[in-house]
Amino acid sequence: MRSSLFGSFSILHILILSCILLTPTTLSSDGDGDDDGDLVDQICRKTPFYDLCSSILHSNPLAPKSDPKGMALIMVNNIQENATDTLCYIEELIKQTSDEQLEQQLDFCAESYIPVVKYILPQAADAISQGRFGFASYCIVDAQKEVNACDKKFSGSSQAPLSDRNDIMQKLVDVAAAIVKLLLNG
Ligand SMILES: *[C@@H]1O[C@H](CO)[C@@H](O)[C@H](O)[C@H]1NC(C)=O
Prior knowledge:
Blueprint: H1 2-30, H2 39-44, H3 50-59, H4 68-96, H5 100-129, H6 133-152, H7 163-185
Helix pairs in contact: 4-5, 4-7, 5-6, 6-7
2-acetamido-2-deoxy-beta-D-glucopyranose (NAG) binds near residues 56 and 168.
């Protein structure tokens, strides 16, 4: 009786000890980014794709390094460029293909990307400029839906010529959504 009680106590001790030993490392990695470090870094860390966010904002010479609203605008403009390029690419593929099913899928995707490029992203950019972050967030969700719809169109089919581009778009849009959410809650 006694020895088994003692035995469980020592296991408990070991657990407590290992927790104490592990704590300092978690704490020190936690405390890193909260001083006056780069605001771009701080913001990108709150998005799901830090590297993507940081490379876009750091590589753009126009990106304001101290203004989250400006950063959101740079992201949306970047998505706009990317989406425009993808739309051109889709139209190129439509011209080249003789596969009827593929053509239908591509047509569907063109119809998803056209409103994203022409209306949704420009509206998101306007809304951000005007400080209407709730509406900006709504537009970004809309862009997400369009890209997802295009991507789904290829699920189960043998060719998915847009999957890389849709994937990048989804990530970019996720990053923009996270930054706008920060503005909304800020
Ligand atoms: C789209 O975004 C990806 C990732 O940032 C980038 O590698 C690619 O060059 C972009 N394309 C255009 C046309 O902006």
